[in-house]
Amino acid sequence: MQVLRPTPSATVPPALPTTTRPRTVPPPIRHAARSGVGVMLVAALVLSACQDKHGDDRQPVPRDGGTLHVVIGGALAHLDPQRVYAVTEANVSRLLTRTLTTFRSVPGAGASEVVGDLATDAGRPSERNQVWDFTLKDGVRWEDGSPVTCADVKYGIQRSFAPQFADGAQYPSQYLQPNRQPYTGPFAASADDAGLRSIECLTPQSIRFRLKQPVGDFGYAVALSVFAPVPAAKDTKEAYDRRPFANGPYKVESSTAQELVLTRNPFWQRRTDTVRGAHPDRIVITWRNDTTVVTANLIDSAGTWADTIAIDRDAAPNFVQQIINDPVLARRAVVGSTGGVRYFALNTRTIPDLTCRQALTYALNKRRLRSALGGFVVGEFAATMLAPQLKSHREFDLYGSLANPDGDPERAMRMLQQAAADRPCPTRIRLAYPNSSDVARAISTVVESYQRVGIEVVRRPYPSQSYYSTGIGNPANGNDMMWAGWVPDWPNGSAVIPPQFDGRHVPKDGSAGNTNYANFNDPQINAMIDDALAESNLERQYRLWGALDEAIQAKAVSIPVFYIKALRMAGANVRNGFIHPQFGQPDLCALYLA
């Protein structure tokens, strides 16, 4: 899942039938803070952020009512569940749209546990995890009072096969058995009336999925918005992106170029929903990309800023020490670790030579880059794409960047000179990033890193709103290096490696929604991915994903920079903020006003 995206917890397999995936765990302190002072500051911040305003661990009863204000860094690209994929969109979407399963809305290890949402449980697998059955709960209704049915679920998933929804998650097409004739969604002129045959409505309340191959954690996959229901009669196609029909606790009151306003869905019933707190009466979401101004206003907490929280941007770096050292502000900080990784993708089409990509990896000064974003508070230095919170994580450091995060420019220069004469390394690279002030400031350190080895960097900023979907999401974007981040769609290697490195899923040029930003396609890696997905023994599967991570890093198609932590600020009246590992940001379902 694309990051714009933490919780300390424990690695225990959650209770899913037959096979499961791991919960997240708190990473050991290593690499990030070399001084004892740094470690103590983080510990103090986490401790104080977990306490209420009285300075103890009492958890008051949540209060219903009021208007919660939410600030995000850029306009939401999508609300249509079949197009929602970036984490902020997914966090907001959960207020409007329920899925067959979802993640619990609690801090700690429990947040990585999937439970029935529209469905009565997390799914019942059979035929060695290749067939999955779900039963819908009674009493779940749309915003007009009509019941949610199996036909709605099937129709919603079928929409994801339409070409115009290619920028959403691709798990349905990757996992579900295909029709004999390629299925291209319900809008096609030649659309099959029976739809996708691998989704069967046994009754209006019972649904069966037939998969291409065994998928042991399919119960987690259907927690994603792309598997959400849509009533065919309410489908407005492209316009659905602005005003999806709701079955969650909120519905869209208005959606403009400046803000999104949500009000209560009168037909949502708390008895059918064990996850969403839905405490505020209204939620107003606005976008502002000036992190410094937003942080200052949240610290002051005057007027409606007291009822406001910033969910997808960390506190501005120049305020971090003030927040850490002020007990009152520290109690309002929402902090946590994540299973996410901030990294650069290296385009294997434009930089096909392995030696050149390895040289770029050695040349990067990760310490200066991280410092520009706030220092150790934003995360620990990374050498892998599978974060330490995942059971599938394997410890390795192929390029020595944990021991030497300043980079190795001398080695990089030697490697640049060793490149084949008929395929020289580039002396000029195009670097893509979302156009926000904090990222632009950090990119300046990258420019300096490559200047040290004689490489000119051409900056290519993209609008934040469309950066992942149509910016770097088009395989033919022409960039050499791309700023990116990834938080697993669920905590296993199966939600990290295939979407980012399986070359068979790279769409044709001109398409949107590509998540294999490196355009990496290696037959040996693809075969190893198939072996890992088919492995039903989870302990063996974890080891396979870890081995894949190391094999991919040897190909130098991505440069992991740091394992993401979050430090988000809330106004003085906002309560129950915690970083949810599914989104890497405060869970909107849990917040309320004092």
TrEMBL record:
InterPro entries linked to this entry: Peptide/Ni-bd (IPR030678), SBP_5 (IPR039424), SBP_5_dom (IPR000914)
Domain annotation Solute-binding protein family: ranges: 113-504
Record Gene3D superfamilies: Dipeptide-binding Protein, Domain 3, Periplasmic binding protein-like II
PANTHER family documented for this protein: ABC TRANSPORTER SUBSTRATE-BINDING PROTEIN, PERIPLASMIC BINDING COMPONENT OF ABC TRANSPORTER
Stated name of the protein: ABC transporter substrate-binding protein
Top-level taxon in the UniProt lineage: Bacteria
TM region positions: none
